[in-house]
Design a protein that fits this description.
Layout (H helix, E strand, L loop, with lengths): L18 H40 L2 H15 L16 H16 L3 E4 L5 E5 L8 E7 L12 H16 L10 E6 L12 H7 L17 H7 L6 H5 L8 E9 L4 H5 L3 E7 L1 E10 L3 E2 L11 H17 L13 H10 L1 E3 L3 E4 L5 E2 L2 E10 L2 H21 L3 E10 L2 E2 L2 H19 L8 E4 L4 H5 L5 E6 L15 H16 L3
Parallel strand pairs: 3-4, 3-5, 5-16, 6-15
Antiparallel strand pairs: 1-2, 2-4, 6-14, 6-16, 7-12, 7-13, 8-11, 9-12, 10-12
Length: 497
C-alpha cells in the first residue's frame, strides 16, 4: 500500500514517497557516503605519499642507492675479458675504470689526480687544508671472473656520500680534508704481490717491487712506462704519505662471507683482519717418457706436489694433530687456529705439460691465513719442514718462496665505535626500530686497510652479500644494502662537519 506525504510548501508540489523511490534515495546516500570516504582516503593516501617521498628524499635514495647501483653496474661492464669481469694492474680496462671513477669524483666536487702507481685520488680540503685528512678508499682492480661489488662498492659508496654533502652545500664545511682513493692493485692477480697501490702510499712497498715481473716477464716498471708513467726511485719514495698528515683510514667492503646474511643485518663493524702469507712452491724432478720409465725409478714432481697439497689440507683442517705445545704455540693459539686457519692452493702449472710426458717441474701457490700471527708462523714452519721431507723421500728438489706476508691487523677501537654508531643510525633511519646491536666481525680476507694500518689508524664496515659469495660473478649485494652503506658513510662523514 502506497503512503502519501504532503509537503508544507505547496509551491514545491506533492512528492509521493513510494518504496521504489525510498530505495533509490538510500542507494544515493550510500553512494554519496562511499564517495566521501574514498575522497577522504585519497587525501590520506596523498599525505602518506608525500610523507614517504619526503622521507626518501631525507635518506637521499636517488644518490645513495639508485645512482650508486647504476654506477656499480657500469663499472662491472669495464673488463679486459669478453665474457667475464677482469681488471688487473693498469690494464686497459683498469685505466678506463680509473678515468670513470675520476669523473665521478669531480661530479662529487673533488679535486682529482692519478699518482705514479696508478692510484686515483679525489680530495676536498674543507675549512682547514692543513688539518689531518680522513682517507676513504678501496680497490678498482678485480680477480679473474670477478663479481662487480668487491672493491668497487667502497669507492662508489664514498663518492655517493660526498656527493650528497656537495649537493646540500656542506662539502666545504668539513673540518678536515677528506680524500677518496681508488687503489690500483689490491688483488695481486697479475704480479702475485698484493697491496701495490695502498702499500706504496703507506710506505711498506719497497722500491725493488718495481722489478717484479708477471708470467710474460713484463715488470711493474714496464707497465707504468706503457701508461706514460716514468717512475724513478725518488718519485716512488715520494708516494708515501706523511703519517702526521693523516687522521685515519676508513674502508667499506662487502663481507665476502655469510655471517651478516645469517644474522639478518645489512652492515657490520670489522674488529680485525687475518694475517696472510702467500707461497710459491717449485718442485723439480726428472722429466721422462710416460710409457718407458718404470714407476719405481721415477722422480715425479707431480706426485710429490700432490702429496704436499694433501698434507696442506690435512694440516689446515686439523692443526692440533700436527702442532705441539711449546713456548710459541700454546693452547690458546691452537684453539684460535682451529677456528680461523684457512689454506688454499689456487694455482698449479707443469712443464712441459704434455699428457705423455712425466713433468720435469711443477709449480703451485699456497694462500695461508690466520687471525693470530704466531699461530700462522707455527703452521708455516711445520708445513715447510714436512714438505721438504716429502721431496727428500721422493728424490725431487723443492723450493719454497714467500711471495707475500701481511700481519694480522686490529682496527682502531675509537674509529670502530664511531663507524658502529654511524652504521646503527643509518640502519635505524631506514628501518625504523633496531632491536639488536650491529654485529662485530673478524675478516678472513685481506684488504687495503691492512697496508694502510702501517700509516694510520684504520676502521672498516662490512656490507652483507648474498650467500657470502665473492670472487665470483654470483657475487651480489641488494640495492638497499648499497643504500645502507652509503648512508652509514654519510652519517660518519657528517661527524667531521
Amino acid at each position: 500500500m502506497a503512503m502519501a506525504v504532503a509537503c508544507s510548501k505547496p509551491s514545491y508540489g506533492a512528492i509521493l514517497l513510494t518504496p521504489e523511490v525510498f530505495a533509490l534515495f538510500c542507494l544515493f546516500l550510500l553512494l554519496l557516503l562511499s564517495t566521501t570516504a574514498t575522497a577522504s582516503n585519497s587525501i590520506l593516501s596523498g599525505d602518506e605519499g608525500e610523507e614517504l617521498e619526503s622521507r626518501l628524499k631525507d635518506l637521499h635514495q636517488e644518490i645513495l642507492r639508485d645512482e650508486a647501483v647504476a654506477r656499480l653496474l657500469q663499472l662491472g661492464q669495464v673488463s679486459d675479458a669478453g665474457g667475464y669481469l677482469e681488471r688487473t694492474f693498469l690494464s686497459p680496462a683498469a685505466v678506463k675504470a680509473g678515468n670513470l671513477i675520476r669523473k665521478w669524483m669531480e661530479d662529487a666536487g673533488l679535486k682529482t689526480w692519478v699518482d705514479n702507481l696508478g692510484n686515483v685520488h679525489g680530495r676536498i680540503e674543507g675549512r682547514n687544508a692543513s688539518a689531518e685528512a680522513l682517507i676513504i678508499g678501496s680497490h678498482l682492480d678485480t680477480v679473474v671472473d670477478a663479481g662487480i661489488f668487491d672493491g668497487s662498492l667502497g669507492i662508489v659508496s664514498a663518492l655517493a656520500a660526498l656527493k650528497v654533502l656537495n649537493t646540500n652545500g656542506k662539502l666545504g664545511t668539513l673540518k678536515r680534508p677528506v680524500e677518496v682513493i681508488a687503489f690500483s692493485d689490491e688483488e695481486g692477480v697479475r704480479f702475485q704481490s698484493t697491496f701495490l697501490g695502498s702499500g706504496a702510499l703507506a710506505g711498506v712497498l719497497p722500491v725493488s717491487a718495481l722489478q717484479i715481473s708477471d708470467k710474460s716477464g713484463v715488470t711493474i716498471q714496464d707497465v707504468l712506462k706503457q701508461n706514460s708513467i716514468d717512475i724513478t726511485e725518488d718519485n716512488f719514495l715520494q708516494l708515501k704519505y706523511d703519517p702526521e698528515s693523516v687522521w685515519g683510514y676508513v674502508e667499506v667492503h662487502i663481507e665476502q662471507g655469510p655471517v651478516l646474511e645469517w644474522v639478518g643485518f645489512p652492515l657490520g663493524v670489522v674488529k680485525g683482519i687475518a694475517g696472510q702469507t702467500r707461497l710459491k712452491v717449485t718442485v723439480t724432478g726428472s722429466q721422462g717418457h710416460a710409457g718407458t720409465v718404470p714407476m719405481s725409478m721415477r722422480q715425479d714432481p707431480m706426485a710429490a706436489a700432490a702429496e704436499m697439497i694433501v698434507l696442506l689440507e690435512s694440516l689446515c683442517k686439523n692443526p692440533d694433530d700436527f702442532l705441539s705445545y711449546d713456548g710459541n704455540c700454546n693452547s690458546s693459539t691452537l684453539k684460535t687456529l682451529s677456528s680461523s686457519l684457512v689454506c688454499t692452493v689456487g694455482e698449479i702449472s707443469t712443464w712441459p705439460s704434455a699428457s705423455n710426458v712425466i713433468p720435469g717441474q711443477v709449480t703451485f701457490t699456497i694462500d695461508l691465513r690466520a687471525i693470530e700471527d704466531m699461530g700462522r708462523e707455527a703452521v708455516l714452519f711445520e708445513l715447510s719442514d714436512r714438505m721438504y721431507r716429502i721431496c727428500d723421500r721422493r728424490s725431487v728438489s723443492c723450493r719454497i718462496d714467500r711471495k707475500h706476508d701481511a700481519n694480522a691487523v686490529l682496527c682502531d677501537s675509537e674509529l670502530s665505535s664511531q663507524l658502529k654508531s654511524a652504521a646503527h643510525a643509518a640502519v635505524k633511519r631506514m628501518k625504523g626500530e633496531l632491536q639488536n646491536e650491529l654485529p662485530v666481525l673478524m675478516s678472513g680476507a685481506g684488504h687495503d686497510a691492512m697496508a694502510m694500518s702501517r700509516l694510520t689508524k684504520v676502521g672498516m664496515l662490512f656490507v652483507r652479500c648474498r650467500g657470502g659469495i665473492s670472487h665470483s660473478p654470483a657475487e651480489h649485494v641488494m640495492d638497499d644494502d648499497v643504500w645502507a652503506s652509503g648512508l652509514a658513510l654519510l652519517s660518519f662523514i657528517e661527524t667531521q662537519l
